[in-house]
Design goal:
MetI-like fold; 14 helices; mainly alpha
Length: 343
Amino acid sequence: MTLSYLAKRIGVFLLVVWLAASFNFVLPHLGTVNPIRQKMTRTAAFGNTNMTAKGSGTDRSYFEQSVASWEKKFGLDQPLWKQYIRYLGDTARFDLGFSIVNFPAKVMTMTMQAMPWTLVVVGMATIFAFALGTMLGALMVWRSDSALLRFIGPPILALSAIPYYLLGLGLIFLLAFTLGWFPISGGYDYGTIPDVSLGFFAQAARHAVLPALSIVLAQIGFWGLHMRGMMVTVQGEDYMYLAEAKGLKPARLFLKYAVRNSILPQATNLALTMGLIITQGVLVEVVFSYPGVGTLLFSAIRNLDYFVIYGIVFFIILSVAFATLIIDILYPILDPRITYQQA
C-alpha cells in the first residue's frame, strides 16, 4: 500500500465523518418539538405544579423565563448555523456536552458507562456467531456428506430469518419465565451496586447469557449462509483443482485455499457489523432492559435528548468509518491478490 493511497483513504474517512456528523446534527432539528420545553413540562407535571404553559399568567411567565434560561444554557437560543459550528468544534474535541434530560450528567460519561455493557455482550456475541457460522457454512460445503451437518444445518440457518428481539422474547419466556434458569431482565440483580468483584462479574455474566444467546442464534445462520455461498463458488476455481492435483492434504486445501479465499467478503461484513453493534443491540437491550448504549440511545430518542443522540450517533459514525478504513488497509493482507499499487 502506497502512502498516497493511505492519505487518500484517510481524507475520505474524514470527509465521511464530517458529512455523516452534519446529517446527525440536522436530523433532530427537523422535528417541531422543543426538547427543553418538553422536559420542563414533564418535570412540572411530575411535581404536580401549575408551572406550565397552560397555567395562570404568572406561572406562564415564570415557565417561559425558565425555558429561555435553559435554552441559553444549552445554546439552543442561538441561530442554527452557530449551533452547527459549535457542534462541530465540540465534537472534534470529543466534548459532547450535557444531557438535557439527565442534567448535569455529561454525555461522554453516560456513554462510557454504558459502552462496556454493549461491547462485551453484543460485540463478543457477534464475533462468536461470526466464527461459528463461518466455520459451519464452510463445513456444510466441504463435508456435505456429514449426517450431523445435514441434521443441524437447516434449523440453524432457519434462525437467521427470525429477528433478534423475537428470539429474545422467546428465550425470556422459555428459559427465564418458565424454567427460571436465567434472570428476566437487567444487567445485574436489583439493589446491587456495580463494583469490581468476582461476585458482581458472576451476576453480570448470568444476566448477559440470554441477550448474547439471542444474538448468536440469529446471526449464526446469516454468517453460515453467506459462507456456504462463497465456498460453493471457490470450489469450482482452477486453483482448487490444481492444488488438489498436487496432492495437498485436505486440511491445507480447506484452510489455506478454500476458506482463505472465501473469507474476504465475510471479513468486510464483520467489520461493518462491528461498527454497527450499537444499533444492532438497541432492540435486544430494550427487550432485556440491559444497561447498554442501545438502551441509552432509545431513551434519548424517546425524550428528544439532542446531545445524547448527537454523542451516540457520532460514535456509530466514527466506528463504521474507522472499520471501513481498517478493512481497506487489511485487504492486501487477507488476500495477496489485491494490491493498491498502480500498474
